[in-house]
Amino acid sequence: MPSADHPASTSPVVIRFGRLGDTILLQPLLRKLQARYGRPCQLLTLGDWSPALFSAQPEVARCIPLRSQYGPLWLRPQRWRAALALRRLRESPFYICEPELRTRTKVRPMLALAGVPAERCTFIEDIPLREGEHWVDWLLRFGDTTPAAFAAAPGAMLPAAPAAPQLRTSAAERDDRDAWLRAQGLGGRPLVLLQPANKRTMRWNGVRAAEDDDKSWPAERWGELARGIKRRLPQAQLLLCGSPAEAGYLDTLMPVVGAASPGIVAATLPLGRLKALLEIAHSMVSVDTGPGHLAAAMGCPLVVLMGSREPQRWTPRSGAGSDVIVLGGLPAVRRVDELAVAQVVEAWKTLRWRTAVAAVAEDRVGVAAYSAGCAG
Predict the structure, then answer these.
(1) Which of 11, 53, 103, 172 has the greatest count of CB atoms below 10 A from its CB?
(2) pLDDT at 69 (0 to 100)
(3) What is the DSSP secondary structure assignment for residue 76, as one 8-state letter?
(4) Is a pLDDT exceeding 70 seen at residue 96?
């Protein structure tokens, strides 16, 4: 139902040109704006991940595709199409979640082309980030602001918005996951996912040198970690995960990791399948990257290895209340390769495991066996 302060025709528009993790962290804001305006959000983001992320989210009505923010506006047909989509929404409230530089050079020209009035826009750059504030908390404070065109409307009393992302899977994503598990012969076993790559791992000419990547953890340590997990949970199936673009990096790791932990599987996963696997997975160990935020948002117990980032601002949050343990991060640790395998194994052992799942392949049977295996 629409809220008391805005008409039913109002659908808030949210703009964020961030990476996968940044887009996941938007979800509490989207949920809050849906409650404020009584309508699901229209979302303009970069990349192809938003439709998969929000495929089952009632707070998102539509994702407007935009693959790149770069290049002259008049030479990028997709940016023109995005501007035309915004033009059709120009009577809506606009929430621009971008830092000042990209707002000035990328977003404002697109809003001007779309004919969006300034009084219908509010900008997060006008809300100073507080010392030590988590990005989600900043976004939720931003959600309390109101574009000038809507300021005269009476406010509605709303419950406090949950300050953590919580995502869902669609039936199609679950079907795809279950079919993939059957095809791989992986049904009915506790799944432990290892995520070694981050967005900066791959360059146009191959894998980035480890010394240039503060989130890189050596292949030998991933292998030792896999061996330690199997000692604690022998029935587990380990998946060394990455996006299709990270397949080359997984290929460089597998000879070392596979030798240390026979039976581990390298899995290049489209985002919808990864999301659905995280819905039922036993746990995940990840470097600080988007799939780690996705694991937390899906309620998957998680250990995060952090390099030169501030945990108080960037720690993944779980709307389901699942465990998130962060190792490293500033000021004590500047590089992930400063973390020892023993630290990671011990942190993983302290996670509260899942004791039940909604469904698991083989043919959606074996849930009791799966749960017993997770309890180990």
Answers:
(1) 53
(2) 66
(3) -
(4) yes
Helix axes 27-37, 135-142, angle to 10 degrees: 20
Q: How many domains does the chain have?
A: 2
Q: Encoding tokens for residue 136? A: 């989600």
- CATH code for the domain in which residue 87 is found: 3.40.50.2000
Residue 208: CA count within 13 A, CB half-sphere: 16
Strands in 59-180 per DSSP E: 60-64, 94-96, 121-123
Determine the 3-state secondary structure of 66 from DSSP. Answer: strand
Q: In the 8-state DSSP scheme, what is residue 23?
A: H
Query: Side-chain half-sphere of 149: how many Cα atoms within 13 Å?
Result: 16
Residues of the chain with pLDDT > 90, as a percent, come to 73
Same domain, 22 and 133: yes
The per-residue DSSP string of 285-304 comes to: EEESSHHHHHHHHTT--EEE
Contact between 52 and 277 (Cβ < 8 Å): no
**In this structure, what token pair is assigned to residue 225?**
């970690």
Place of tokens 């300050």: 163
Apex 373 CA angle, 367 and 376, nearest 5: 145
Q: How far is CA 329 from the centre of its chain?
A: 19
CB 209 within 8 Å of CB 252: no
Domain of 192 in residue numbering reads as 171-375
Most confident of 50-59, 65-74, 105-114, 365-374: 50-59
Residue with tokens 């988007």: 290
Q: Nearest-CA neighbor of 348 among 292, 296, 282, 289?
A: 282
Please report which helix (H) or strand (E) contains residue 278, including its range: helix 271-280
What distance in Å separates the CA atoms of residue 227 and residue 359, rounded to the nearest whole number?
A: 27
Tokens of 80: 């023109």
pLDDT at 97 over 60: yes
